[in-house]
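user: can you give me the structure for this one chain? tokens are fine.
assistant: on it. calling the predictor now.
[tool input]
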Amino acid sequence: MEGEKPKVEEVGGTAEPHPHAPVDVAEEKAVVTAPPPAAEPDDTKALAIVEKVAEPAPPALDKDSGGSINRDAVLAKVESEKKLSLIKAWEENEKTKAENKFQKRLSEIGSWENAQKAALEAKLKSLEESYEKKKAACAETMKNKVAIVHKSAEEKRAIAEAKKGEELLVAEEKAAKYRATGLTPKKLFGCFGS
């Protein structure tokens, strides 16, 4: 079944050609193809035979029997077909121009969008750089302030150490004096009084 081709029937008429018709006019034949075989063959379906009837060719120009009338009709038909083909060509040209305009507009919109995005990205980058510079400047200022505070604290520690050293020397001198004289200090540990 897979290798079989569908059946084709050709049906054609054998009408006599018009005596004035050109020799190269061929009869039209209708081709009817059978549908591909289904899972279950159905013998009740019949093939329809369609026969196309060719339009009679215009009679050849006969100069003796009203040839100018036929010629005028043929020329009018040719002129009408020419107009129709020109209209169709114009329509196709207009459609092509409209499509080209549309594509050009799309291209312009795309390039505008890209330019806007690039400008915004450049502005964002500029702002980020500006903020980074400000951040670095603020960080430097804070580091300087921290250094000043640290230096001040070191100085205060040094002063406190010096004062402690002086107070220790004074205490040692007084203790030596009291030992030498044998007297006791007036205040002993601050809470015992004499």
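assistant: here you go. Strands lie at 8-11, 30-33, 187-188, 192-193. The helical segments are 67-181.
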